[in-house]
């Protein structure tokens, strides 16, 4: 199984949307991919509650059966649409992909 974990820090405001609105939209968009993309076994988005210098604003945890499924997900049009929005609102991105 391949695990794909992404952390973002989000801009304070973009096009009239507050940081909180942006984070909720990201959660909605990414979790809506469950059952929509073959090979995506599970996706969950968490919004940080700690609000410390060491934390990130948003985290995506997702699972795939293999590396090919993760690659398919990356290029799937529904995921690409999410990426476009997220790139426009994110200040930074960190990720870790690993196999168990």
Describe the secondary-structure layout.
Layout: E1 2-10, E2 13-14, E3 17-18, H1 19-31, E4 42-47, E5 58-64, H2 67-75, H3 77-89, E6 90-99
Question: Describe it for me?
Answer:
The protein has 100 residues and is of the alpha+beta class. It has one domain (2-99): 2-Layer Sandwich (Alpha-Beta Plaits). The chain is 35% helix and 36% strand. It has three helices and six strands; from the N terminus they run βββαββααβ. Strands 4-5-1-6 form a four-stranded antiparallel β-sheet. Strands 2-3 form a two-stranded antiparallel sheet. Helix 1 (19-31) packs antiparallel against helix 3. The radius of gyration is 13 Å and the shape is globular. The N and C termini lie close together (5 Å). The mean pLDDT is 97.
Low-confidence stretches: none
Oligomer: single chain
Number of domains: 1
**CATH structural class:** Alpha Beta
- Helix run count: 3
Shape descriptor reads globular
**Rg measurement, Å:** 13 Å
Number of strands: 6
CATH topology: Alpha-Beta Plaits
* Strands side by side in the biggest sheet: 4-5-1-6
Backbone structural class: alpha+beta
Approximately how much beta-strand content do the residues carry?
A: 35-45%
- In percent, how helical is the residue content? 25-40%
Order of helices and strands: EEEHEEHHE
CATH architecture level-2 label: 2-Layer Sandwich
Compute the separation of the termini in Å: 5 Å
């Amino acid at each position: 199984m391949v695990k794909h974990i992404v952390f973002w820090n989000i801009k304070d405001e973009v096009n009239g949307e507050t940081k909180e609105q942006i984070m909720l939209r990201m959660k909605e968009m990414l979790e809506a991919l469950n059952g929509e993309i073959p090979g995506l076994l599970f996706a969950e988005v968490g919004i940080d509650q700690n609000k410390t210098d060491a934390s990130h604003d948003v985290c995506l945890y997702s699972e795939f059966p293999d590396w090919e499924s993760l690659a398919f997900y990356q290029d799937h049009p529904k995921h690409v649409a999410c990426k476009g929005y997220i790139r426009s609102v994110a200040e930074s991105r960190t990720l870790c992909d690993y196999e168990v």
